[in-house]
Amino acid sequence: MFLSLTTRYLHQKLTTINIKNKYDVVVIGGGIIGTAVARKFLLECPGQDICLLEKECSLAKHQSSHNSGVMHCGVFYKPNSLKANLCVEGIELLKKYCDDKNIQYQRSGKVVIAPDLCQVNVLCKLYEQGQDNKVRGLQLLESQREIRKYSPSCKGEKALWCPDTANVNFREVTEHLADDFIHSGGNLVFNYKVVDIKQSEDSCFPICLCVSERPPLFAKYVVVCGGLHSETLSDMLEVKNSIKHQQFLILKVNYQEIDSKYCENLQTNVYGVPDLELPFLGAHFSPQIKGTILLGPSAVPALKVEGYCNDEVSLSHLSKMVFSCNVRNMVVRNFSQCINQLCHTLNTDIQIKYLQQFIPNFSYQYVIKGPTAVQCQLLNSDGTFVDDYIFNFFNGNGIGKRIINLKYTPSPAATSCLSIADYVYKKFTECYTDL
C-alpha cells in the first residue's frame, strides 16, 4: 500500500515538472507491457534518457487491469509460438519478481476439465501440447477421485492439472515495474496522447512524436505498446493508403463474481476444454487476490474502442466494424459460437448452466454482476483469428528503421511481460549498439 501511494505521488509529480523534449528512447503505452519494456531498457542502459508516455492519467488503465488475473502456465498455446515460449519463460520471471518485491500472488494451480467423453480426446491433445511446450508439473487426471484430490467440488470424465498456474493483481505488478523505472531515472509522463509519428528535421533525434495539445517530443528510438489503440498507432507507421489485410476487433468482456466464502472448496482455477482452433479459453472460475471468484467471461463486440458500457457508442468505430469483410467472414465461420456468446451475455442463467458442468453444487444463487473488460483480437481477411503475437522490428524505410511496434499482444501477454521485455531488448541490441 505504501509503495502504491509513493508511486502515485511520483507519477503526479512527474506530470507537473518540465518535461524534456528529446529522448534516447520513448516507449508509447503505460500498460504492463510498455512499463516492463521501458524498465528493461533503463536497467540495461543506465544513464540514458528514456521516457514512458501514457495517454491516461494513470497506469494500467485498460487491458492490464481489466482481466481475470491469471498467470498462465503455457498449456493453451501452440508449440514453438511466441505465445508458448514467452509464457513458459515469463511466468517464472514474474513469480520471481513478485517474490522479490513482496507482491501477493496465489499459487492456485489450474484444473482443465473434460465434462464428458466427447472432450477427452481434445484434453489429451492439450496435455501433449503442454508437454511440447515444457510446461512444468502437468498431470493427466484419469478419474473423478483424482480430480477431487485437486479440486473437491469439480466433476468430469478426465482433467488436466496445471500446478504452475497462479493468480495476481496485474495492476499492482505494473505499479511496481513503474516504481523501478522511476527510481532508476526514467521519465514517466501522463496525459500525453500521440496523434502522429513522423520524420523530424533533427538527424540526432529523427523521430517526431506529435502530441495532442502539447509540444512535440523527439526521439532516437521508439517502442510502441499500443494495447487497445494498437491499430491507430500502427496506422501511423504504415504506408498511407496501403491495403490492410488484418483488422482489430474490440470485444466487451463481461464477468460475474461471487464471494469466496460461498465456495470454500474452490481454491484453484477451473477451465473447460477450449477449442484449440480459436484463441479463446471459454468460461472459467478464477480466484482473485481480493477474496472473490470471477466467473466467465462472455464476450460481444464493443461499440467503441474503450466501450465498457452499452451506452458508450462511437459511430465511426461501429460503421468500420459493420462494414468490415474481416468481421463478416469471422461471423460466418463461427456463427454458432457468436450466437452462443450473445446468449451468455444477455442471459446469465445460460452462463451459469454451462459452468454447472464443472462444479454442479456451486452456490450460484450468490453470483452477482462482476467487472467488465475490453479486449482486442486481430482478424485476417478470411475471418480467421491471428493466434500469436505480432512484433514488428524496424520495418520499412526512414524512421521505420528506428521503431519497434508491438502490434498485437493478447493474453497471455501480462503473464509474459518480463520475457517480452527481454525479447524486445535482445532484438534491439541485435540491430543497434549506440545506447
From TrEMBL:
Catalyzed reactions per annotation: (S)-2-hydroxyglutarate + A = 2-oxoglutarate + AH2
Ranges for domain FAD dependent oxidoreductase: 24-301
Domain of life from the UniProt record: Eukaryota
Required cofactor names: FAD
Swiss-Prot/TrEMBL keywords: FAD, Flavoprotein, Oxidoreductase
GO molecular function, one term: (S)-2-hydroxyglutarate dehydrogenase activity
Pfam hit, one: DAO
UniProt keyword Flavoprotein, yes or no: yes
InterPro entries assigned to the protein according to its UniProt record, in alphabetical order: FAD-dep_OxRdtase, FAD/NAD-bd_sf
SUPFAM superfamilies in UniProt: FAD/NAD(P)-binding domain (SSF51905)
The EC number(s) this enzyme carries: 1.1.99.2
Recorded family membership: Belongs to the L2HGDH family.
Protein name: L-2-hydroxyglutarate dehydrogenase, mitochondrial
Species annotation: Rhynchophorus ferrugineus
